[in-house]
Amino acid sequence: MSPDVVPGTARSELLPVRDPVTTGRRLEVDVSIVSGLNQALTVQCLESLLGTAGDDRFDLRVTVTCNTPGSTLASRLRKQYPGVRVLENQSVKGFAANHNVVLRASTADYVLVLNDDLIFRPGAVAAAIEFLERPENQGVGTLTPRLLNPDGTLQPCTFSFPTVTRVLLAVSGIRDRIPTTPRLYWLARLLRRSNGRSRFWEHDRVCDVETFAGAAMFVRGRALRDVGVLDETTQVGGEETEWHRRFWERGWRVVFYPGAEVVHLGSQTVGRDPSLDNEFFKGALNYFRLHGSAGAYLGLLVSSAALFGFRRALAVVRGDRERAGRAAVGWRTALAWLRAGRSHAGTRV
């Protein structure tokens, strides 16, 4: 998508309300996996998912969307996993657009929205579903398991909702220069940003959070049909944060649950392409367009345009054409959204 084009439609419409009765029958669990560039990752994810999910209390209905047109992955999966539904894209689609195909059609009790760069620890799916089924947890709309790095160390995954200041720190490049040290954990506790309100805490207990990384999302079917599907404004970046905001606004809890563990290889599905920075920027703009005040949204646009313009000029002076080009993309995006004059609060045009 061109950075100069502001998306015309955010497809976060509500779905028809259905309330399946779970008593006395096996639970239905839909699974949506979107493949990236590495076929081996998708196969590894499927193997670990199917290996850990064996449970006589629920049925898994797995859909894999092959998002790399022209690859041999679809035929390989159909041969190797005849019970898995395989979809093939004729063109590359974004995170939300891919998963929404499954989300819109689902009538299941639960839906798992997954990256393909995951390895499920034994019992992870059953543990998460059991937690969601407890009577005291019927208000939990979505949860994340504990994410681990490939070496088994913790991968922090919970965050607070964005603020204009934090977005501008990211746009300026300052945020990327702040190292993660024990002092940040101490500061988070001092500022009461621990206990799930930032990534700087131990991730060792069940905790209500504002938002979490969207690598592995367990979603209650009733909540999905109340809140609606993901917003498709960006290719990848910030969709889950805007979604989680709607969960909270509709009265559903968003929870971190450490009783289920999943290894997240990290940045393997979409890679580490610097051009995706602009998609994350658009995700932040869309969040404030939908949930921020008019002043916050306008201030973010104007300030971002100025910062990107400054970074572009500085890169040109230094002869860094790559950084100048990336800054120019962000600058054009901010100006395009400014010119569009989109409605700022709670509307999806």
Question: Hey, roughly how much beta strand do the residues contain?
Answer: 15-25%
Please state the CA-atom Rg, rounded to the nearest Å: 20 Å
CATH homologous superfamily designation of the largest domain: Spore Coat Polysaccharide Biosynthesis Protein SpsA, Chain A
Give the tally of structural domains.
2
CATH architectural type of the largest domain: Alpha-Beta Complex
CATH topology of the largest domain: Spore Coat Polysaccharide Biosynthesis Protein SpsA, Chain A
From the N-terminal CA to the C-terminal CA, the straight-line distance is 18 Å
CATH C-level category of the largest domain: Alpha Beta
The profile of the biggest β sheet is: 9 strands, mixed
The topology string of helices and strands comes to EHEHEHEEHEEHHEEEHHEHHH
Category from helices, strands and their pairing: alpha/beta
Question: What is the average of the pLDDT values?
Answer: 85
Topology:
Layout: E1 27-34, H1 39-52, E2 58-66, H2 73-80, E3 85-88, H3 95-105, E4 110-114, E5 118-120, H4 124-133, E6 140-148, E7 158-159, H5 164-172, H6 182-190, E8 207-208, E9 211-212, E10 216-220, H7 221-227, H8 239-249, E11 253-264, H9 277-291, H10 294-318, H11 321-340
Parallel strand pairs: 1-2, 1-4, 2-3, 6-11
Antiparallel strand pairs: 4-10, 5-11, 6-10, 7-9, 8-11
Helix pairs in contact: 5-10, 8-9, 9-11, 10-11
Features:
9-stranded mixed beta sheet, 11 strands, Spore Coat Polysaccharide Biosynthesis Protein SpsA, Chain A, 349 residues, single chain, alpha/beta, 40% helix
